[in-house]
């Protein structure tokens, strides 16, 4: 009869594999309690762009651990391209086994992730927190989801504009300082560079799906919000509009007339790094449509140290399409620290956030990462405003005419459709008209045709 | 079949009734772990696919909390989604050129040519082809990313014969992924055909040779019909491997530029995980599963597999 | 006349060697970059001989604790999966090969049918199932899922291997007083080695480079296998660190190569599908 026992043992070992696997996931969550508390801080680690972020979280963690003996901060870097990161983050936040106490949230995800139940409302925390008033109001508003509750504490904000290479401009016979008044001015400058300065990419902008939200915001919305049209109006998505079409046509023109970068340089997830760390320091690109953080790469401690960077590349505001008032446009977003709704140690998470977003750490972050500060007291700090090798001053002045993205829980999905349209136009597989048609069709499917409008 | 004969043997010498029930119980025990695993982790997800494909499940936003049944909405959307048709075409092109033609033909040619060659030579060439197969999929992607890059190996080689560099991954993306997959997969077909050819008796070929049949005739009339079973099996196996292939394309081109190399699994990934529409993505998965089921049934019917 | 004939015979003999050599070379060429770049201190995507040969790329990969862990994770995941597959499929194949069972035929059809389903491409429901079962981020859960995904073809192959093991030996063992289980272990299992190796290596090679499954099912960085962590080289300092990427790739390919070499002599049997299908 020993066969019975033995085969039973085999079967049991199979069953054991199950129970083990069930245990292990509980261990990961529950085992922490016995060996002192642990809070997890999840953030994106990809490319050089987030070096400052990681250093900031590390020093904040050190201070936090000092203030809370027995509590450990576990940094959870998520290695994914921008396009894959938000999915990975959602998967992480969805399950109590992995939900981090603190997450870095791009503000455009706040409404969506709050509606999904991934984020914890912070109202009860910030109501008694005197420093909350230190944050600029428009940025504070961006922390609210559609239910009116606050879901994050901001640690950065930003504006976007045109970097132009003064040396290349002089060679091309273009004025320095440069103040383009219309899109046509921008195109004309790019054409002049193409003609007179060979070997240089005249105009650079994110156009790939792999660069995710950067393609939507730094490129498409910088164009769209310079037209008369918007992406979301009166509770409806504007899926077709003249402004939408013109924005795609601008991209089409850039690439059709050979004014844009090589596709191999711009369609990869590292496009942002390639332009900031290689093309710009080598002065291989004339005009770059990008955010205010770019010069952070040229700091002494950065990936591509370059002292003269901000002298060679100056930062000009993006003109509206035909020079319509107020003449310029910009887009602002930013990042926040949020608390995972399914995490264990929410109170400690908030304590960590308070430390990480205090004046000292915020200043450190802005100076190393190159992001604009959301805090008034940091903004007034001369060390910040006059920081060498940054474009803080110009970038801050863009806040006057800047725009914010729709704070809508469907925005993230709609945004991915914009990226698909932009890439298709840039590589020339779809005409601007066709790309807009596809965009309209996909968005209608996703949000329901009744929530869209065509102009 | 033979197995049935074998199966009867142990029963023969024993008392039928008790040993049969005992065998039965034993069989259940032996099969139990496999059953449990298959039910939970294989057929479980398939059942869930049938369910989720008809919902609006989402990775973020309201729909990730409240699952709503949306009927055929996902499918009517899929069939009017131009990118879906593109990905079907891409999947077919990829399947036909990389697997059915590329791997299959090259594998057969290799096996035929290697038949009767010196042992050392055969082993050497075999080992070279096999490196492609044992190289992990993600590494294959990196290797070919370098191979096809602007200043990469292929352009360097073309340069030595005076050809201009080509942006392979951007101008010929489908050709590039097809080549990468042929490199990765050919060894499998080669091994299958080597084994099959090994089973063809020498006498038959020799007899045909004496009858004056040309090499070509021998191949078509004698060798191929004799290994027909292996050909079909191999075709089905590599088709299915290719149908579900994700890592190689994802890491090499990400489905791009645009949607030019977006096959069904990559399309599914983009819809489900990048655009956050899990329900829609699952509907695509379901179509992928249905294609697999059809291939499978055709295969079983075609070969009249006896069990 | 004789001369011409001799000539065609010679070319007829030389041609296959030539063609085979060319194909062989074509298969090596893509690998050259990986080898050269891994030894190059200033590697990029171009194919070039390193000006300075260095082992630093390898040293940095091997000495990094993160990489060690990722490799270990990968080996545990794939090896664990392979062992589980061999055990579970081997057990299942035994009654399917040896007994007359009423449900055998439908079961084998189901298995054959399942072999054709691209289950690893259906990750949304799998992920959701993991959430339901609270297996999300579980290393063993991922291993068990990968095991289940490989079971259909593994059972199919194992049964065919087992059919070819003659029953007489087993019967002799029973006569000698061996229990069925002991006969299974002592007689059947050793004769099954080719099958075990083939199935094991198949399984291992199939999952070793799999990026998708662990990418979706595992969230904690410290549990990720090397197939996912290899992505780090796409990031650091903006330039892809091609030298390290190549070195990592090289090291990452080695376990599969070694395993294949170990099992090679058993493998050729595994590709004989005559038993699987009668045309």
From TrEMBL, chain B:
Membrane topology field: Multi-pass membrane protein
Keywords: Cell membrane, Membrane, Sugar transport, Transmembrane, Transmembrane helix, Transport
InterPro entries in the record: MetI-like (IPR000515), MetI-like_sf (IPR035906)
Primary subcellular site in the record, as a coarse category: membrane
One cellular component term from this protein's GO annotations in UniProt: plasma membrane
Gene3D superfamilies linked to this entry: MetI-like
Gene Ontology terms describing biological process: transmembrane transport
Cited SUPFAM superfamilies: MalF N-terminal region-like, MetI-like
Name of the protein in question: Multiple sugar transport system permease protein
UniProt key word Transport: yes
Coiled-coil regions, chain positions: none
From TrEMBL, chain C:
Protein known as: Multiple sugar transport system permease protein
GO process terms (BP): transmembrane transport
Main location: membrane
Keyword annotations: Cell membrane, Membrane, Sugar transport, Transmembrane, Transmembrane helix, Transport
Homology family: Belongs to the binding-protein-dependent transport system permease family.
Domain ABC transmembrane type-1, residue spans: 71-263
The keyword NAD is annotated on this UniProt entry: no
Organism field: Lihuaxuella thermophila
InterPro entries found in the cross-reference section: BP-dep_ABC_trans_perm, MetI-like, MetI-like_sf
Topology class, membrane: Multi-pass membrane protein
GO CC aspect terms: plasma membrane
């Amino acid at each position: 009869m020993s066969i019975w026992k033995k085969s039973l043992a085999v079967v049991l070992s199979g069953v054991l594999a199950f129970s083990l696997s069930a245990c292990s996931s509980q261990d990961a969550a529950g085992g922490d309690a016995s060996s002192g508390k642990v809070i997890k801080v999840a953030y994106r680690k990809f490319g050089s762009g987030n070096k400052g972020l990681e250093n900031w979280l590390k020093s904040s963690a050190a201070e936090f651990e000092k203030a809370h003996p027995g509590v450990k901060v576990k940094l959870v870097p998520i290695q994914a391209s921008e396009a894959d990161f938000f999915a990975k983050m959602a998967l992480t936040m969805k399950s109590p086994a992995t939900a981090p106490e603190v997450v870095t949230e791009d503000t455009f995800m706040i409404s969506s992730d709050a509606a999904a139940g991934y984020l914890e409302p912070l109202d009860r925390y910030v109501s008694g927190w005197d420093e909350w008033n230190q944050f600029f109001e428009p940025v504070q508003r961006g922390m609210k989801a559609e239910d009116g509750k606050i879901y994050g504490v901001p640690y950065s904000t930003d504006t976007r504009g045109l970097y132009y290479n003064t040396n290349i401009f002089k060679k091309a016979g273009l004025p320095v300082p440069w103040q383009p008044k219309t899109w046509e001015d921008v195109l004309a400058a790019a054409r002049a560079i193409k003609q007179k300065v060979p070997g240089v990419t005249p105009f650079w902008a994110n156009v790939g799906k792999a660069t995710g939200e950067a393609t939507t915001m730094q490129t498409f919305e910088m164009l769209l919000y310079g037209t008369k049209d918007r992406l979301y109006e009166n509770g409806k998505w504007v899926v077709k509009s003249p402004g939408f079409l013109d924005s795609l046509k601008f991209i089409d023109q850039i690439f059709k007339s050979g004014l844009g970068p090589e596709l191999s340089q711009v369609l990869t997830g590292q496009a942002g790094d390639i332009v900031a760390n290689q093309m710009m320091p080598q002065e291989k690109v004339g005009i770059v449509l990008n955010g205010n953080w770019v010069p952070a790469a040229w700091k002494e401690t950065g990936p591509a140290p370059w002292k003269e960077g901000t002298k060679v590349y100056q930062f000009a505001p993006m003109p509206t399409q035909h020079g319509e008032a107020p003449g310029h446009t910009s887009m602002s977003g930013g990042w926040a620290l949020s608390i995972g709704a399914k995490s264990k140690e929410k109170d400690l998470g908030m304590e960590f956030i308070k430390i990480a977003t205090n004046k000292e750490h915020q200043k450190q972050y802005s100076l190393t990462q190159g992001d604009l500060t959301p805090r008034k007291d940091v903004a007034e700090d001369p060390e910040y405003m006059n920081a060498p090798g940054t474009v803080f001053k110009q970038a801050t002045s863009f806040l006057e005419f800047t725009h914010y993205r729709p704070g809508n829980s469907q925005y993230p999905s709609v945004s991915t459709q914009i990226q698909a349209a932009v890439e298709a136009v840039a590589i020339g597989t779809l005409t601007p008209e066709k790309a807009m048609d596809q965009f309209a069709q996909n968005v209608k499917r996703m949000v329901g045709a009744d929530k869209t409008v065509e102009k | 079949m033979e197995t049935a004969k074998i199966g009867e043997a142990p029963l023969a010498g024993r008392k039928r009734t008790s040993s049969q029930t005992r065998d039965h119980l034993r069989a259940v025990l032996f099969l139990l772990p496999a059953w449990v695993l298959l039910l939970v982790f294989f057929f479980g997800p398939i059942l869930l696919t049938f369910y989720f494909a008809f919902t609006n499940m989402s990775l973020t936003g309201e729909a990730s909390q409240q699952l709503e049944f949306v009927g055929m909405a996902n499918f009517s959307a899929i069939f009017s989604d131009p990118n879906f048709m593109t990905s079907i075409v891409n999947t077919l092109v990829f399947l036909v050129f990389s697997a059915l033609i590329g791997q299959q033909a090259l594998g057969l040619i290799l096996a035929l040519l290697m038949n009767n060659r010196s042992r050392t030579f055969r082993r050497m060439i075999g080992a070279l082809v096999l490196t492609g197969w044992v190289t992990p999929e993600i590494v294959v992607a990196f290797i070919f990313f370098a191979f096809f890059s602007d200043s990469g190996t292929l352009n360097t080689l073309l340069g030595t014969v005076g050809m201009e560099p080509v942006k392979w991954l951007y101008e010929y993306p489908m050709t590039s992924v097809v080549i990468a997959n042929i490199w990765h997969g050919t060894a499998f077909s080669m091994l299958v055909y080597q084994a099959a050819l090994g089973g063809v008796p020498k006498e038959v070929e020799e007899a045909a040779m004496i009858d004056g049949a040309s090499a070509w005739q021998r191949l078509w009339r004698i060798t191929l019909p004799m290994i027909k079973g292996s050909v079909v099996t191999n075709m089905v196996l590599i088709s299915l491997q290719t149908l579900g292939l994700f890592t190689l394309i994802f890491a090499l081109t990400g489905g791009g530029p645009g949607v030019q190399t977006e096959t069904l699994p990559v399309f599914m990934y983009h819809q489900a995980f990048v655009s956050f529409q899990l329900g829609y993505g699952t509907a695509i998965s379901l179509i992928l599963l249905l294609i697999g089921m059809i291939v499978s049934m055709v295969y079983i019917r075609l070969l009249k597999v006896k069990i | 006349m004789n001369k011409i004939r001799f000539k065609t015979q010679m070319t007829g003999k030389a041609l296959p060697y030539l063609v085979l050599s060319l194909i062989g070379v074509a298969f090596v060429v893509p690998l050259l970059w990986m080898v050269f770049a891994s030894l190059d201190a200033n590697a990029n995507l171009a194919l070039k001989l390193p000006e300075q040969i260095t082992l630093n790329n390898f040293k940095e990969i091997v000495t990094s604790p993160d990489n060690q862990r990722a490799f270990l994770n990968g080996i545990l995941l794939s090896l664990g999966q392979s062992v589980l597959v061999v055990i579970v499929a081997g057990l299942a194949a035994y009654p399917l090969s040896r007994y007359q069972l009423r449900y055998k035929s439908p079961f084998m059809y189901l298995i054959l049918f399942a072999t054709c389903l691209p289950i690893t491409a259906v990750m949304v429901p799998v992920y959701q199932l993991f959430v339901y079962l609270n297996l999300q981020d579980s290393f063993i859960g991922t291993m068990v899922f990968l095991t289940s995904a490989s079971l259909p073809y593994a059972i199919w192959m194992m049964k065919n291997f087992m059919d070819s093991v003659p029953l007489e030996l087993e019967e002799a063992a029973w006569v000698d007083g061996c229990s069925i289980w002991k006969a299974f272990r002592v007689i059947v299992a050793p004769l099954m080695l080719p099958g075990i190796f083939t199935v094991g290596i198949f399984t291992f090679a199939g999952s070793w480079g799999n990026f998708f499954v662990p990418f979706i099912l595992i969230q904690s960085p410290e549990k990720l296998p090397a197939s996912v962590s290899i992505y780090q080289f796409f990031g650091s300092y903006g330039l892809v660190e091609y030298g390290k990427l190549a070195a990592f790739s090289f090291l990452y390919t080695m376990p599969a190569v070694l395993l294949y070499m170990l099992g090679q002599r058993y493998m050729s049997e595994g590709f004989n599908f005559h038993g699987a299908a009668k045309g």
